[in-house]
Amino acid sequence: MLDTDTSPQNQNWGVTGPIEIYLEVGEKRVFAGAVDWPGWSRGGKTADDASVALFEAAPRYAAALKPARAGFSGPKSVDDFAVVARLKGDASTEFGIPGQPAPGDDQDLDSGELKRWVKLLRAAWAAWDNAADAAEGITLAVGPRGGGRTLVKMTTHVFEAELAYLRQLGSKPTQGEDMTVLREVALEALQARAKNESPPNPNQVKKLWSPRYYVRRSAWHTLDHAWELEDRSRPT
Question: Is the C or the N end of the chain the one with fewer CB within 10 Å?
Answer without folding.
Answer: C
